[in-house]
Design brief:
The protein is α+β, with helices and mostly antiparallel strands. The longest helix has 23 residues. It is globular and about 45 Å long. It folds into 3 domains: 59 residues, Integrase, N-terminal zinc-binding domain (Arc Repressor Mutant, subunit A), CATH 1.10.10.200; 95 residues, 2-Layer Sandwich (Alpha-Beta Plaits), CATH 3.30.70; 70 residues, YebC, transcriptional regulation domain (Alpha-Beta Plaits, 2-Layer Sandwich). A 4-stranded antiparallel beta sheet has the order 3-1-2-8. Strands 5-6-4-7 form a 4-stranded antiparallel beta sheet.
Length: 251
């Protein structure tokens, strides 16, 4: 995941602040709407909605936008879209495994666009379960690194139930088992840490090293998928070391 975080930073720099912000807002609106539809519009009784709202606030999403997204999900807002969550699995260039999470109001459109993206770069969309077993679902909490004592955070995060902590450019990543994401986040907030985001992610069990040309093709496929408004997350098992990420920076 560390490499994926650096890839995300590269993407944001290339896309520009406004484009990246719009993509994040679009993802958050869909997540809030789905959470409200499934568990109701009251965050105190809906942990998933509460987490989505906190993530939106950390991105400075206006309160009105959050409320509209909730009302879309609960059906209070006339003409609101009905989103559903879908996952797609497949193989990219060089046999790299892909797990793609989507939130869409048109399943036929989404599957067609996802299949087309894989085909364009010589990949192949697979059946459900074809690569799922290669990934473990974990909780990921991002904490702004400024002013944080990393050693103290590690001790307090482990005490709160975290599994691991990793350092990134401008934030620290705290990993948990799937079920402990919300409790660990709540505990870290009690300790006074500023939470940038908290979400479920898929961690590859093993990584695959590729050559420069294969890395470039995969980065282009990842970029095409991530630019799709229906795509929420893209996870792969491509090894993203400094050498591989340099290919992305020079795209």
């Amino acid at each position: 995941m560390a490499g994926h975080s650096k890839w995300a930073n590269i993407k944001r720099k290339k896309a520009g602040v406004d484009a990246a912000r719009n993509k994040i807002f679009n993802k958050l609106v869909k997540e809030i709407s789905v959470a409200a539809r499934e568990g109701g519009g009251e965050p105190e009784h809906n942990p998933r909605l509460a987490m989505a709202i906190e993530n939106a606030k950390s991105q400075n999403m206006p309160k009105d936008n959050i409320q509209r997204a909730i009302k879309k999900g609960t059906g209070e807002l006339e003409g609101g879209s009905s989103y559903e969550e879908l996952t797609y699995e497949g193989y990219g260039p060089g046999g790299i495994a892909y797990f793609v999470e989507c939130t869409t109001d048109n399943q036929n459109r989404t599957v067609g666009e996802i299949r087309s993206a894989f085909t364009k770069f010589g990949g192949k969309l697979g059946q459900n379960g074809s690569v799922d077993y290669m990934f473990d679902q974990k909780g990921l909490i991002k904490i702004k690194a400024e002013g944080v004592d990393q050693e103290q955070l590690m001790l307090e995060a482990i005490d709160a139930g975290a599994e691991d902590i990793k350092e990134e450019e401008d934030h620290l990543e705290v990993y948990t088992v799937r079920e402990d994401l919300m409790p660990v986040r709540a505990k870290l907030e009690e300790f006074g840490y500023q939470i940038a985001s908290a979400e479920l992610v898929r961690i590859p069990q093993t990584l695959t090293k590729v050559d420069e040309d294969t890395a470039l093709s995969n980065f282009k496929l990842m970029e095409l998928l991530e630019d799709n408004d229906d795509v929420s997350n893209v996870f792969t098992n491509m090894q993203m070391d400094e050498e591989t990420l340099a290919v992305a920076e020079n795209m």
